[in-house]
Every structure is written in structure tokens, then in C-alpha cells.
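---------- Forwarded message ----------

FYI, see the Ribonuclease Y record below. Original note from H. follows.
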Amino acid sequence: MTRQEALQLMEKHLKNKNLRKHALAVEAVMRALARHFGEDEEKWGLAGLLHDIDYESTKDDPNRHSLVGAEMLAREGLPEEVVYAVKAHNERHGLPRPDLMSKALYATDPLTGLIVAAALIRPEKKLAIVDVPFLLNRYHEKSFARGASRETIAACSELGLSLEDFMHIGLAAMQGIAGELGL
């Protein structure tokens, strides 16, 4: 599947503009992580772009989220490692994350939410203003961006990355597509 085909598939299933932006953010970070680790940027990008493909259809049943999406992606012929990473990113299923892609997607999903929230509390509402020390301060505030699981973000250690390095990679990737994100 090409990136353009994946983008069309994502847009077909996700109508909410913020969910679409989230998918683009996760894609950007996954691509950056693939480059960092010398992995297949296209595959990792597809996992990021399509990880929440079923969100709007499963939002009322979080136990089905990512299982339905993985089935959809398997039917579309995506590589098994992409399908598995999508399935394993929902911690409710308790699936092991045996490969780098699965570990990266799991930790990246909430990181993008933390980064967006950090940009939105600034008067400028721009990613360019955000830096890693600012993110680290917000990370340690339990009341800030509660939906961004700190435990899940901290799973970046499974990738051999410090929290600071993970945030640096993620922030730089999202700053690179700030226009698409409206930030």
C-alpha cells in the first residue's frame, strides 16, 4: 500500500479532523523513529498513519479498538508486522510487543497527545515554541494532558531511548509537519 492509498483509507474511516491530525502526527514520529533505528520508514509510517483506523467505529467499545483496525488492515493486505503493531498498541489487549515497530507505536501514540497539549497551552499555539525541557516539565505534571499515559510514554525505554531523546525525536518530527497539524 502506498502512502497516498493509506491516507485515503484513513480519511475514509476517520472523519474527525483532530483524529486525522493525530494520525498524521503519529505517522511523522514513527517515520523519524524508523530513520533513527535504520528501519523501513514506509512500513513504520503506515503503522502510524493507520493505527487508529477503527477509532470512530469502536470508540464506544474500547476493548474492540485496534482489533477491528488490525482486521481491516489485514484485509487490505498490509504487512503482518504493521497489522500486529496496530493491534498491540491498545494496552487493553495485553499483547506483547516483541519488535521495535510495536514498541515504538505503543509509546508514540500518547507522546503525540502530550506534545499537542504542550503547544496548545502556549499563547502562540505553535509547535515551534515548544522545546524538550518544556515537555519534560509538563510530563511531570500529573494533571496536565491526563489522557497521555506517562507509563506508556515511558515505555520508550523498551526502545533503548531516554525520555528526553524520545521527546526530542517526536517533537522534531511533529515540528516538521506543523503546517499539516495546524500548529
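H. also flagged this: Residues 3-181 form a domain with the Hypothetical protein af1432 fold (CATH 1.10.3210).
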